[in-house]
Specification:
By secondary structure, this protein is mainly α. The protein has one domain: Helix Hairpins (Orthogonal Bundle). Helices cover about 75% and strands about 0% of the residues. The termini are far apart. The mean pLDDT is about 85.
Length: about 100
């Protein structure tokens, strides 16, 4: 396993662990999801540069575009829940109250 593969997989696993263990605030969950997407972007970019294939060169940019869309949707949900519930604590959110 190369150092680049080790670093990207370790970053992904740390973000996944952060998402599973520290779910007190919605903002921390969104930041962990963003870290997971950025680690996948770095891994995919390194993989396409390693293979020297020009056909896969648009894949990291597509993943980055989807990550930006996910981040904007997550921030919109964060603002909406902060306005309706007054906080971003995950314990105060109840999906059955909708």
């Amino acid at each position: 396993m190369t150092p680049t593969q080790f670093t990207s997989s370790l970053t992904f696993l740390m973000a996944l662990a952060g998402l599973t263990f520290y779910r007190t605030h919605l903002l921390s969950a969104l930041l962990c999801l963003e870290a997971m997407m950025l680690s996948l972007f770095v891994a995919l970019s390194a993989w396409t540069m390693h293979l020297d294939m020009s056909s896969f060169s648009a894949s990291p940019l597509l993943l980055l575009a989807f990550s930006a869309c996910e981040a904007s949707a997550g921030l919109a949900l964060l603002v909406a829940t902060a306005r309706t519930h007054g906080t971003d604590h995950m314990q105060s959110l109840n999906l059955l109250k909708c």
